[in-house]
Each structure stands twice: as structure tokens, then as C-alpha cells.
What we know:
The protein is of the alpha+beta class and about 350 residues long. About 20% of the residues lie in helices and about 40% in strands. The chain contains 5 helices and 23 strands. The strands form 5 sheets. The protein has a 6-stranded antiparallel beta barrel. It has a 6-stranded antiparallel barrel with strand order 7-8-9-15-11-10. A hairpin with a 2-residue loop joins β14 (about 215) and β15 (about 220-225). The longest helix is centred in the N-terminal third of the chain and has 34 residues, at about 1-35.
Amino acid sequence: MRLKWTSLAVLAIAAVVFCAPARAEFVAVKVAEKAKKSVVTIEAVSLSLASVSLTSRQQRIVQSYNTGLILNKNGYILTDVSALSDVEEMEVTLSDGRKFPAEIVVKDEGYGLGLIKMKKPPKDLVPAVIATKAHVRQGDSVVVVGTAGGYGHTVSYGIISGIRTVRLRSGQLVPDMLQSDVVINSGNEGSPLFNSNGDVIGIQAVFGGGGALGMQNTNFFMPASLVERITNQLIKTAKPAFRPWLGVMPYSGSFSAQGGIREVTDDLKMYMNLPDEYWDVGMLVYDVWEGSPAYEAGLRYQDFVVKVDGTLLKSIGQLEKIVYEAKKDQIMVFGLIRRDRFMEVDVRIGDHPEEVLEFFI
């Protein structure tokens, strides 16, 4: 009898081990069947400079294949901005093979996204569901559908490796970025990330002309809440989406676009003779961009910011997250110490100009 029960236990364990991949495969198949209907392949034709001489300029035709996500029945499609570089004409291919011409609506270099529109969208388009309220957990199964190496509707499977606050290559800090080990190949940069329900929970982060934010077997995806905010603005205004801007650079050990930003040291706090109540909080303003919201409000070099809207400021990251979540023209009250005096200034959050160095918050 003991041998019989032991054998049954071994069989049960084996069933769990060998069925796990089958369950994973089933999830990917089910998601892919639903998700691919809202993903398109973008075939773009552009002109590239082949050679230049004193007497002539020669151009060559370049054909590229990229990934797009159907946003609504009107034929609006989200893609990465690098897919729209110097495009002369483009068409999109649905999962059933039908092709439709499309045109560029707007390119958003700041977020690395582009919006295009089908000229004559069919009535049976299947828009993606952007799951802003989905509960995403580390270890969840995810699927990417995209155009890998020119092959449309390629499916990759992975998991959520982590959920992190990440500084983008543009310098902006974004909370709740989704880290995943799912495979991303050339052509499906900026691809949608689907959960086990086949809903979009993220878009791969691609910035300023193509460089994907990630490394081997590690990619980051902008969360659904940010994707929805960006796409709504792109469709409504046909202009780049609003990026909150304060206009200050926190204390930096090295003036570097790579973010030499660090917290203020205890030695510097002693030198500034800070009150005890502010010893463990605050950040020093290293520089203020002239004409920025912070500059217009009166924030200046070497101001020590200790509060925002009455909340003690414990880190630079906390301030960046506060700014990240701000709405356009929102007024924030900054409490600061200047020359041993506490004072408050009202700052109206503005839109980040493209020409301004990105490591200014």
C-alpha cells in the first residue's frame, strides 16, 4: 500500500511539471488569437540619401515593416515614432491579410510614439482594449504580438519580471514601468504587451528615433495608464502629448545628461545650517531653466525645496513622480528655504519644450 501511494505521488508531481508548459502554451495561443486582430503590420516606403557629390544627390527607396496597434473604429493606429521617419507612403496589413493605405497624423518624439490613420478604414476593425485598471503582478504571463524582422503578427511569450520606476533615455522618470523578458526583435519595437485576457497593459518604450529601452532579455513597457493618456491627447489634438515640466535640475554631482543626480549630503546640509525639522528631507536646486514655470514662479539656484503642497519632500524621485502626475496649468505650492528663511512660491506646471535639455524636471 505504501508503494502504491508513493507511485501515485510521483505521477501527480510529474503531471504538474509536464502540464505547466502546456498551460503556458494554451494561454499564449488564446491571447494571440484575440490580440492579433487589433495589431497591424505597417509597411512604409521612405527615401534615404544614398550619396552626395558636387554635381548630384542620389536617393534610394527604403522599405520598412513595423508594428501598429488599432485604437478605435475610426482607423487610428499607434506605433513607434521611428516607423514614421521620412515616410513617403504607407499601408497597414490586418491579421486577415487585407491592406489599407494610411497617413501620418502626428509624431511625438518625447514619448517615442506616432499616430497614423487608415484613409478608408473597414467597418469590422477590432480596436485593442487598453486595460488601465488591470491588476498587474510580478510573474504574470504576458504576450507580445508584433512585426518581427518583417514577419507580421509574430507572437512572443514571457512574464512580468518586475514593476519599477524607470528613468527613460529622454531623462523623464516614469513609475510603474513593466519589465519583461519577452523577446523583442527588429520591427516590433513599440509593440503592445498583452495580459492573459488579451488586453493591452503596456507599450514597449522606444524613444527618440528607435532605441529601445532595454537590454538582452530585458525590455520595459510604458504602463496602460500612460498609454491611454498619451493616445487620447494625440487623437484629440493631433499634437505631441503633454509632458509635465517644472524647469529645475536637482543637485547633481556631475553636470551630465546621464543623470548624475543624487541626494544632498549631510555635509552640505550642515553647511546650509538647516533646521532640525528639515534635516531628513528636501533637495537642492542646482539650476533653473530661464523662462520655465519654476523660473517664472521665483525658484532659483541653491534654493532648498522641502515641501510640495504641504507634503515633506524626502527624495528627488518623489518630486519627479509628483511632477509626472501633474496636469497642465496645475498650481503647486513649493515650500523652500533660502538664506535661512522659509518661504513659499506657487508654480504653474507647464509643458516640456522639445528644445530644453531633458534632465531638467
